[in-house]
Write a structure and sequence with these properties.
This protein has about 100 residues and is an all-alpha fold. About 50% of the residues lie in helices and about 0% in strands. The chain is built from six helices and no strands. The longest helix has 12 residues. The chain is globular and about 35 Å long. The relative contact order is 0.21.
Length: about 100
């Protein structure tokens, strides 16, 4: 899995107004695991599946997996997604 998933998952968490501890409480994923993927460690498919299994995050499935959205189908991107390039890096930081 690409490390860009960690950056995408962080955007989702922030868009939902959650702290890392609140995400842990909702998903059962360890706090240290959440912190590790947000700083760039590789995110495994099992973590992605656990997050997307929660109804609150299902609206981001298509964007998380493909980078695409389908508004009519209820599939959206979180705020800030437009600032990520295809590798999940912040475009503004990459251009500096």
């Amino acid at each position: 899995m690409s490390t860009s998933y960690g950056k995408k998952l962080r955007l989702i968490r922030i868009a939902e107004g959650l702290t890392q501890a609140q995400l842990r409480d909702l998903t059962g994923i360890g706090l240290s695991t959440i912190k590790n993927y947000e700083i760039g460690r590789e995110v495994g498919l099992s973590i992605i599946e656990r997050i997307l299994a929660h109804v609150q995050f299902q609206k981001y499935t298509l964007w998380l997996m493909t980078g695409e959205t389908a508004i009519r189908a209820g599939q959206i991107a979180p705020k800030g997604a437009e600032d990520l390039d295809d590798e999940g890096d912040n475009v503004d930081a990459a251009n500096q």
